[in-house]
Design a protein that fits this description.
By secondary structure, the protein is of the alpha+beta class. The chain has five helices and four strands. The protein has helices spanning 5-13, 30-36, 54-62, 67-72, 81-93; strands at residues 26-28, 41-43, 74-77, 97-100. Helix 3 runs parallel beside helix 5. It is flat.
């Protein structure tokens, strides 16, 4: 199934992911652009509530779960950004989430954001 660029762009911009994710800035990396003699843009996903783009995939998938699947909840094995995306998505959707981490994983408490 082929979709037009306009159709893909419309799907992206109307995605439910923006219920939890932010539209982040696109900034020119001036020094890197100078080194490679071309314009390099950085998509600033570090501006997301969980400091990563992983919130997009987690939330997008979790919103597509059936009512019975949502009632059961989700489980993931991750010690990083994906775990944070799943946890925030579950909280927003009122779902139960179990995050499995290695015992040697670093525990970093999130800092408060405006």
């Amino acid at each position: 199934m082929s979709r037009s660029f306009d159709g893909i762009l419309r799907a992206i911009l109307t995605s439910r992911v923006y219920e939890v994710a932010r539209e982040t800035s696109l900034d020119v990396a001036r020094r890197l652009s100078g080194r490679v003699e071309n314009t390099v843009w950085l998509k600033r996903e570090d501006q997301q509530p969980v400091f990563s783009f992983k919130i997009r995939g987690a939330y997008n998938r979790m919103t597509r779960l059936s009512a019975s699947e949502r009632k059961v909840g989700v489980i993931t094995a991750s010690a990083g950004n994906h775990a944070q995306g799943v946890a925030l998505s579950a909280k927003h959707l009122g779902m139960r989430a179990v995050i499995v981490m290695r015992s040697s994983s670093a525990i970093v408490w999130p800092r408060k954001r405006d």
